Amino acid sequence: MSATATRMLLLGAVAMFEPVNGYQVRRELVSWQVDRWAHVNPGSIYHGLASLTGQGLLRRTDLVDGSREVAVYETTPEGRGVLDHQLVRALEEVDPYDRVAFHVAFGMLPLVAHDRVLQSLTRRRVALEGEVDRLSREQDRPGKGPPHARRGRVLWLDMAVAELAWLREVIHDVEDGTLRLEPHEDWGWTMPAEDPAHPTAADRDRYRALLGRTP
Questions:
Q1: Could you say which architecture CATH assigns to the domain 1-109?
Q2: What is the dihedral of CA 173, 177, 183, 187, to 10 degrees?
């Protein structure tokens, strides 16, 4: 996974739950199994948060929460700007050989404005249509490699065709409201109460109060 995609993942996790402590960020990302599909070592998450803080993309505040000290993180205006740019870019750019950045961005669609989601996914559809056309034209050209290599291109083509069909359905569902993205909307789904990984609204409200923020 690229450093850019890792940064997007960490910034996005903070933005989704801020203010949030580092342990909650790590626990949440581990529950997403980022070590398996994004190749992010859970042990590197704290270092990543510290690095982003040093770059001015996150703000760290040390609080006393009851009987313990806790460091909570929030995105800075600069950090949110970087995140917005990276999310849009990952949604729009097509790399048929590496979809990790797209999966990160798609998992954080509620952080992107509804109209921008439609615009970016539509641009991705156009780019993907071009990629399918390119792969279709190249798969049988002898000059593109030996038979087994050309056969491998058929796999890339099939994967691109499948993604294109899926993407068209997603765009349709976003347009007609079947796929709800706004954080205040009823998604028809609730986090199971027994799930220990999800930072709770009570945690955020308590941290906001300690930070002197209005609810």
A1: Orthogonal Bundle (1.10)
A2: -80
Domain ranges for the chain, please list them. 1-109, 113-182
70-83 per-position pLDDT tens digit: 999 999 999 999 99
- The DSSP H or E segment spanning 205 is helix 201-210
Tokens of 114: 């509804």
In 3D space, the residue among 14, 166, 160, 34 whose CA is nearest the CA of residue 100 turns out to be: 34
Count of other CB atoms within 10 angstroms of residue 121: 20
End-to-end CA distance of the chain: 37
Distance CA 91, CA 211 (A): 34
pTM for this structure? 0.87
As a whole number of angstroms, the distance between CA 163 and CA 207 comes to 41
Report the residue count for the chain. 215
Please choose, from the candidates 167, 175, 57, the residue with its C-alpha nearest in 3D space to the C-alpha of residue 106: 167
